[in-house]
Amino acid sequence: MVMGAAGSKLEKALGDQFPEGERYFGLENFGNTCYCNSVLQALYFCVPFREQLLDYYSSNKNIADSEENILTSLADLFMQISSQKKKTGVIAPKRFVQRVKKQNEYFRSYMHQDAHEFLNFLLNELVDILEKESNSAKTSPETSSSTEKIGNGPCNPLANGLRKEPVVTWVHKIFQGILTNETRCLRCETVTARDETFFDLSVDIEQNSSITSCLKNFSSTETLNAEDKFFCDKCCSLQEAQKRMKIKKPPHILVIHLKRFKYIEQLGRYKKLWYRVVFPMELKLTNTIDDADSEYSLFAVVVHVGSGPNHGHYISLVKSHHHWLYFDDENVEMMDESTLPTFYGSAQEYSGNTDHGYILFYECLGSRS
């Protein structure tokens, strides 16, 4: 079989450098599920996430007999991969994909789906399930209540009109950061600050830029005037103001989504931006509230392949034990770190290269003041 040949080729390429206990398995595509496969590979090689999921599996021994949900089916899939006798091969994530489609009608069609929307959906679903499990362990079914979400992050659940302590799940501990939205009234100088949580940062991109400059623009000061004036509570009226977004608490795993699909009014549709955006192997996060630099290391990239938003393909590039691997559904190959710049984007449109970095995964190496 070709798949087996590809697997043995990978084993041969790594030789005695094949990491002890590691498994490199491609995922079967069920028609249009590359959006799912690419995100799953990035999450599988997000070591803290994988460890927590496998820990969840082992601490819920009767997971196969329990009522299936997205969390149990994902834990089951990760367990299948990690416990394979062979080092390489292909696994069909059929049960997981069926569960996703059952849970969300958006992913049922055979149209091209968005990997970023899938990642958001998946993390929020996992949080919902873990929160409900935590709440049901603390309270009886009669007193537990559902949780609400604000933006990317959940807010505190309410029970009988009383605010409960928010549940901090392991998904929060890995991915959640806190942003502070500061607005300064230019008349009375009062600063209003509002915190909000995030699981990923969606950043606007420009031609021939870098992730560092995109993040600086994300946190740049914006003046609110004319029709966009700010209602100042102290002045009790609409006033000119300045606002900016800063990172109050950087996450352990920083996920950056590049806004490669832009709505063009004249065309009446979304268009893919081919812009060249450099994503470094090591990233310093400087625009934080306490001005302490958080250092991050790149370990996965979800790449969009194709010329437009409604068609194309997704692959993932993953760093595992100092090696970079290329995951394209069933196919897994070694790749050289020096080829990463080919996924930055293009200096000009229609250059022939349509493989563009779309979602970046960075792991925090620690903070340095």
Brief summary:
This protein is of the alpha+beta class and 369 residues long.
Q: Topology, please?
A:
Elements: H1 2-14, E1 24-27, H2 34-44, H3 47-59, H4 70-82, E2 88-91, H5 94-103, H6 115-138, E3 149-150, E4 153-154, E5 158-159, E6 162-163, H7 170-175, E7 177-185, E8 191-198, E9 201-203, E10 209-210, H8 211-218, E11 222-224, E12 230-232, E13 237-239, E14 241-249, E15 253-258, E16 261-264, E17 269-272, E18 277-278, E19 282-285, E20 293-308, E21 311-320, E22 323-328, E23 331-335, E24 355-368
Parallel strand pairs: 1-2, 9-15, 10-18
Antiparallel strand pairs: 3-4, 5-6, 7-8, 7-14, 11-14, 12-13, 15-24, 16-17, 19-20, 20-21, 20-24, 21-22, 22-23
Task: Provide structural commentary.
This protein has 369 residues and is an alpha+beta fold. The protein has a single domain (2-138, 169-368), classed as Cathepsin B, Chain A. It is built from eight helices and 24 strands. It has helices spanning 2-14, 34-44, 47-59, 70-82, 94-103, 115-138, 170-175, 211-218; strands spanning 24-27, 88-91, 149-150, 153-154, 158-159, 162-163, 177-185, 191-198, 201-203, 209-210, 222-224, 230-232, 237-239, 241-249, 253-258, 261-264, 269-272, 277-278, 282-285, 293-308, 311-320, 323-328, 331-335, 355-368. Helix 2 (34-44) packs across helix 6 (115-138), helix 3 packs across helix 4 and helix 4 packs antiparallel against helix 5 (94-103). 31% of the residues are buried. The model is unreliable at 143-151 and 153-162 (pLDDT under 50).
